[in-house]
Fold:
Amino acid sequence: MSTKPAIERKFEQGLFASRWLMAPMYLGLVVSLGMLTIVFCRELIYYAPQVLSMTADKAILVILTLIDLSLAANLLLIVLFSGYENFVSKLDIDDGGDRPSWMGTVDFGGLKMKLIASIVAISAIHLLKQFMEIGKSSKPLDQDSLFWLVVIHMVFVASGVLMAAMDWIVSRSKKY
Structure:
Protein backbone atom coordinates (compact mmCIF):
# COMPACT_ATOMS: atom_id res chain seq x y z
CA MET A 1 0.00 0.00 0.00
CA SER A 2 1.30 3.43 -0.97
CA THR A 3 2.04 6.08 1.62
CA LYS A 4 1.48 8.89 -0.88
CA PRO A 5 -1.52 11.17 -0.42
CA ALA A 6 -4.46 10.44 -2.72
CA ILE A 7 -4.10 13.76 -4.53
CA GLU A 8 -0.48 13.02 -5.39
CA ARG A 9 -1.38 9.55 -6.72
CA LYS A 10 -4.19 11.02 -8.85
CA PHE A 11 -1.86 13.73 -10.17
CA GLU A 12 0.77 11.14 -11.14
CA GLN A 13 -1.86 8.94 -12.81
CA GLY A 14 -3.07 11.94 -14.82
CA LEU A 15 0.48 12.87 -15.70
CA PHE A 16 1.16 9.32 -16.88
CA ALA A 17 -2.09 9.23 -18.89
CA SER A 18 -1.07 12.45 -20.68
CA ARG A 19 1.22 10.37 -22.89
CA TRP A 20 -1.91 9.57 -24.92
CA LEU A 21 -1.90 13.18 -26.13
CA MET A 22 0.87 11.99 -28.48
CA ALA A 23 -1.47 9.47 -30.19
CA PRO A 24 -3.05 12.04 -32.57
CA MET A 25 0.44 13.10 -33.59
CA TYR A 26 1.30 9.54 -34.57
CA LEU A 27 -1.97 9.35 -36.48
CA GLY A 28 -0.87 12.52 -38.28
CA LEU A 29 2.38 10.77 -39.20
CA VAL A 30 0.32 7.94 -40.73
CA VAL A 31 -1.46 10.56 -42.86
CA SER A 32 1.96 12.01 -43.77
CA LEU A 33 3.10 8.54 -44.86
CA GLY A 34 0.05 8.35 -47.11
CA MET A 35 0.92 11.76 -48.57
CA LEU A 36 4.50 10.63 -49.21
CA THR A 37 3.20 7.47 -50.90
CA ILE A 38 1.04 9.59 -53.22
CA VAL A 39 4.03 11.80 -54.12
CA PHE A 40 6.16 8.67 -54.77
CA CYS A 41 3.46 7.18 -57.02
CA ARG A 42 2.98 10.49 -58.84
CA GLU A 43 6.73 10.68 -59.59
CA LEU A 44 6.83 7.06 -60.72
CA ILE A 45 3.78 7.46 -62.97
CA TYR A 46 5.21 10.67 -64.46
CA TYR A 47 8.64 9.25 -65.27
CA ALA A 48 7.81 5.61 -66.17
CA PRO A 49 6.52 6.43 -69.69
CA GLN A 50 9.66 8.48 -70.36
CA VAL A 51 12.09 5.67 -69.56
CA LEU A 52 12.80 4.77 -73.21
CA SER A 53 13.77 8.34 -74.11
CA MET A 54 15.61 9.16 -70.88
CA THR A 55 19.34 9.77 -70.73
CA ALA A 56 21.35 7.79 -68.20
CA ASP A 57 21.91 10.94 -66.12
CA LYS A 58 18.19 11.72 -66.08
CA ALA A 59 17.39 8.11 -65.10
CA ILE A 60 19.87 8.33 -62.22
CA LEU A 61 18.29 11.61 -61.04
CA VAL A 62 14.81 10.05 -61.18
CA ILE A 63 16.00 6.97 -59.27
CA LEU A 64 17.71 9.17 -56.68
CA THR A 65 14.46 11.09 -56.23
CA LEU A 66 12.55 7.82 -55.67
CA ILE A 67 15.22 6.59 -53.24
CA ASP A 68 15.02 9.91 -51.42
CA LEU A 69 11.26 9.54 -51.02
CA SER A 70 11.67 5.92 -49.93
CA LEU A 71 14.25 6.87 -47.28
CA ALA A 72 11.95 9.60 -46.00
CA ALA A 73 9.12 7.05 -45.75
CA ASN A 74 11.39 4.59 -43.92
CA LEU A 75 12.37 7.33 -41.51
CA LEU A 76 8.72 8.17 -40.96
CA LEU A 77 7.92 4.53 -40.15
CA ILE A 78 10.82 4.26 -37.72
CA VAL A 79 9.74 7.43 -35.91
CA LEU A 80 6.10 6.33 -35.98
CA PHE A 81 6.59 2.83 -34.54
CA SER A 82 9.51 3.54 -32.23
CA GLY A 83 8.05 6.77 -30.93
CA TYR A 84 4.68 5.19 -30.23
CA GLU A 85 6.27 2.18 -28.48
CA ASN A 86 8.73 4.29 -26.49
CA PHE A 87 6.41 7.07 -25.41
CA VAL A 88 2.79 5.91 -25.61
CA SER A 89 2.17 2.17 -25.49
CA LYS A 90 3.60 -1.14 -26.72
CA LEU A 91 2.12 -2.40 -29.97
CA ASP A 92 0.41 -5.63 -29.01
CA ILE A 93 -0.51 -7.02 -32.41
CA ASP A 94 -0.66 -10.53 -33.80
CA ASP A 95 1.33 -10.07 -36.97
CA GLY A 96 1.84 -13.69 -37.90
CA GLY A 97 5.62 -13.31 -37.64
CA ASP A 98 5.72 -10.38 -40.08
CA ARG A 99 6.93 -7.90 -37.46
CA PRO A 100 10.18 -6.11 -38.42
CA SER A 101 13.06 -7.29 -36.20
CA TRP A 102 13.89 -3.78 -34.97
CA MET A 103 10.38 -3.09 -33.64
CA GLY A 104 10.26 -3.07 -29.87
CA THR A 105 14.05 -2.92 -29.65
CA VAL A 106 14.76 0.65 -30.76
CA ASP A 107 15.13 2.84 -27.69
CA PHE A 108 15.40 6.63 -27.75
CA GLY A 109 19.17 6.49 -28.39
CA GLY A 110 18.68 4.07 -31.28
CA LEU A 111 15.88 6.19 -32.67
CA LYS A 112 18.14 9.23 -32.51
CA MET A 113 20.88 7.40 -34.44
CA LYS A 114 18.46 6.08 -37.08
CA LEU A 115 17.04 9.57 -37.45
CA ILE A 116 20.41 11.27 -38.00
CA ALA A 117 21.60 8.47 -40.33
CA SER A 118 18.47 8.91 -42.45
CA ILE A 119 18.87 12.68 -42.51
CA VAL A 120 22.51 12.33 -43.62
CA ALA A 121 21.50 9.86 -46.36
CA ILE A 122 18.69 12.12 -47.59
CA SER A 123 21.02 15.13 -47.53
CA ALA A 124 23.70 13.20 -49.44
CA ILE A 125 21.21 12.18 -52.12
CA HIS A 126 19.98 15.75 -52.47
CA LEU A 127 23.56 16.99 -52.73
CA LEU A 128 24.41 14.34 -55.33
CA LYS A 129 21.38 15.36 -57.38
CA GLN A 130 22.55 18.99 -57.30
CA PHE A 131 26.07 18.02 -58.37
CA MET A 132 24.68 15.99 -61.27
CA GLU A 133 22.69 19.02 -62.43
CA ILE A 134 25.80 21.23 -62.73
CA GLY A 135 26.03 22.49 -66.30
CA LYS A 136 22.83 20.73 -67.41
CA SER A 137 20.01 22.70 -65.88
CA SER A 138 18.58 25.85 -67.39
CA LYS A 139 18.80 27.36 -63.91
CA PRO A 140 21.92 25.91 -62.26
CA LEU A 141 22.82 26.56 -58.65
CA ASP A 142 25.49 29.15 -58.12
CA GLN A 143 28.72 28.40 -56.24
CA ASP A 144 27.44 29.98 -53.02
CA SER A 145 24.34 27.77 -53.00
CA LEU A 146 26.42 24.64 -53.63
CA PHE A 147 28.86 25.70 -50.91
CA TRP A 148 26.03 26.05 -48.40
CA LEU A 149 24.51 22.71 -49.40
CA VAL A 150 27.89 21.06 -48.71
CA VAL A 151 28.24 22.93 -45.40
CA ILE A 152 24.76 21.91 -44.29
CA HIS A 153 25.44 18.29 -45.26
CA MET A 154 28.72 18.32 -43.32
CA VAL A 155 26.89 19.74 -40.28
CA PHE A 156 24.52 16.76 -40.47
CA VAL A 157 27.47 14.37 -40.77
CA ALA A 158 29.31 16.01 -37.86
CA SER A 159 26.13 15.95 -35.76
CA GLY A 160 25.74 12.25 -36.44
CA VAL A 161 29.33 11.52 -35.49
CA LEU A 162 29.02 13.58 -32.30
CA MET A 163 25.75 11.86 -31.34
CA ALA A 164 27.33 8.45 -31.93
CA ALA A 165 30.34 9.47 -29.84
CA MET A 166 28.08 10.68 -27.02
CA ASP A 167 26.10 7.43 -27.08
CA TRP A 168 29.34 5.45 -27.05
CA ILE A 169 30.64 7.45 -24.06
CA VAL A 170 27.35 6.95 -22.19
CA SER A 171 27.34 3.20 -22.92
CA ARG A 172 30.95 2.90 -21.71
CA SER A 173 30.21 4.82 -18.51
CA LYS A 174 27.29 2.48 -17.68
CA LYS A 175 29.65 -0.51 -17.68
CA TYR A 176 31.68 0.87 -14.76
